[in-house]
Amino acid sequence: MPESIKTYDFKPGLSAEIELAAISAIFQQHQLNIIKPHRTDFYHIFWFTQGTPVHTVDFIPITLKPSTLLFINKNRVHFFDQTGNYDGWVLLFTDAFFARNTQDAQFLRNTILFHDLLEIPTIQLDEAQTDLTIIFQQMQHELAEPNDPVHASVLQNLVHNLLLLADRERRRQGFTEIKKGPDLDHTLHFTELMEKQFIRLRSVNQYAQQIGITERRLQQAIAKSVGKTPKQLIEERVLLEAKRLLVHTNQSIKEIGFMLGFDEPSNFSRFFRQQIGQTPAEFRKSFIV
């Protein structure tokens, strides 16, 4: 078991930070890496066309059917089904590729496809839904073309259209949507800041100051959006990272607690038990085969 969770950067040497590859090809080339828990600094859109794999994202097993789209945000810890008895396509791209201006960056930050606060997004396609599959085909064609002054722009527009159409289809299929407005904007801003700072910053008031609102207003916004308090979201994020490190690394419980900002191992163990009713040692042991 490694000392840390492997993080992969985007593939170097491409004219634009976007790649569309057959899942079978990715599996053949990188099997030993992708069947192990890992994170990346880029986005994944899977289009499964064959087989019924189980893709695991942060301890959540997702059983997939043919003609399913799966969206995975950057920095999620996930791994592929080790059987390899499935195929399809995976689209990979970075913030640098997509966010050509502030509007693009905001769109990517707020889309329900990568920032659903309640579940990991999947979309089941039927045979009549050719608009999304046509975009995949258009991207394949454009990626095969020689690089020219409009190459990256064409690809970015295709990805943008894919996300817009997928957003529309997900809404048609029904999901628990959080009402748009200032409350959701503040909640997303909070989660974005928290993702970068949760290890060293646990003060709700300081997050509120960074957002430019009062602590009470932040409390109200998050309660209306997800029915929780900011403190609960911070604790859940700390707990998730603790689980990741306990299961996917060989670091000691003392080292993990210290890494997550706990001065004493007993404080870390107490926090962990309060959250899930198990000690860190008991949780780790439950994942040992």
From TrEMBL:
The GO terms describing molecular function are: DNA-binding transcription factor activity; sequence-specific DNA binding
What keywords were assigned to this record? DNA-binding, Transcription, Transcription regulation
What the entry lists under Gene3D superfamilies is as follows: Homeodomain-like (1.10.10.60)
Q: Does the keyword Transcription regulation apply?
A: yes
Q: Which Pfam families match?
A: AraC_binding, HTH_18
Domain (HTH araC/xylS-type) spans: 188-286
Q: Where does the chain cross the membrane? A: none
Establish whether keyword Amino-acid biosynthesis is in the entry.
no
Q: Which domain of life is it from?
A: Bacteria
Family annotation (InterPro entries): AraC-bd, Homeodomain-like_sf, HTH-like, HTH_AraC, Tscrpt_reg_AraC-type_HTH
Name the UniProt record assigns to this protein: Helix-turn-helix domain-containing protein
**Organism source for this protein?**
Spirosoma endbachense
